[in-house]
Amino acid sequence: KQGVEITSGNTVAVKKADVIFLAVKPLITGQVLREIDNVIKGKTIVSLVAALSIKNLRKHSKNAEIIRIMPNMAVACNQGIIGLFGNKGNNHHVKQLLSVLGSVIELEKEEDLDPLTLLSGCGPAIVSQFIELQANYGAKIGLSFDVSYILALQSFKGTIAILEKTKQSPDQLIQSVSTKGGISETILQNLEKKKLRQSFDYAMNRGCSKIKELSSLYNK
C-alpha cells in the first residue's frame, strides 16, 4: 500500500537503500555486517544495536558510515526520544528521517548513549511503575482500579502539560502544590523519611552498572 518493498535477503535490501537501519541482537550483529559489507560502500548504517560501540561495529564493516542511535518505545506514537551519535557531517539526513518519531538528541560523546538509555530507554518502564503504584493505592482505599488508573494516568499527563506550558521546574511545581501543613506536603515529607530518593538512586545506579556490564561483554 505504501510502496515498500519487502525481501528476506539482507544483501538485496541493502543494495536498494541509501540508509540501512541495523536492528538485530548484539550476538549476531557481526555476522550480519560481514554478510552485507561488500554492498554497503558509500551508504549509511544506523545501528540500534544496544551496547555495541562504533569501533566494534567497524571491525566487521569498513565500507560504511556508521551512526548509532538509541530510541525508546514512545517512537511508536511519535513521542519518542532518540539519542544519536556519529559523524556530524552525515547526521542531518538521518536526523530528518527520525524527527517524525519524536525528539532527536544529538550527543557529543558516544559514552553518553549509556545514561541516555538509562533515563529514556528505561524511562517508560520506570514511569509505568509509578503510575501503577498510584493506581493500586487508589484501589486499596476503595476506588475501582479502572477509576484509579485513569486518575493516575491523567495526573502524569496533566503534570507534564503544566510543566511544558509554564516552564516551571519540577521543584517549583512541587512548591506551588504543597501548601504548609497540607496533604501534599505530608505525603512528600513521609516519602522523604522512607528514603525514596536514596532508593531511586540506588536502583538507577544498579541499572547503570548493568549497562556497563553488557557493554564490556559485547565490546571485547
Distinctive features:
220 residues, alpha/beta, 55% helix
Describe this structure in words.
This protein is of the alpha/beta class. It is 55% helix and 12% strand. A five-stranded mixed β-sheet has the order 1-2-3-4-5. Helix 6 (123-140) crosses helix 7. It is elongated, with a radius of gyration of 22 Å. The mean pLDDT is 93.
Q: Alpha-carbon distance between the termini?
A: 44 Å
Please provide the count of β strands: 5
* SSE order, one letter for each helix or strand: HEHEHEEHEHHHHHH
State the helicity in percent bands.
Answer: 55-70%
Count of helix runs: 10
Q: What is the global morphology? A: elongated
Mean pLDDT: 93
Beta-strand percentage?
5-15%
Main sheet?
5 strands, mixed
The largest beta-sheet arranges its strands as 1-2-3-4-5
Radius of gyration, whole Å: 22 Å
Low-confidence stretches: none
| Overall SS class | alpha/beta
Can I get a quick summary?
This protein has 220 residues and is α/β, with parallel strands linked by helices. Helix content is 55%, strand content 12%. The protein is built from ten helices and five strands; from the N terminus they run H-E-H-E-H-E-E-H-E-H-H-H-H-H-H.
What's the arrangement of secondary structure elements?
Blueprint (H helix, E strand, L loop, with lengths): L9 H6 L3 E4 L3 H11 L7 E4 L6 H5 L6 E7 L8 E6 L5 H8 L3 E5 L6 H9 L1 H18 L4 H22 L3 H8 L5 H11 L2 H23 L2
Parallel strand pairs: 1-2, 2-3, 4-5
Antiparallel strand pairs: 3-4
Helix pairs in contact: 6-7
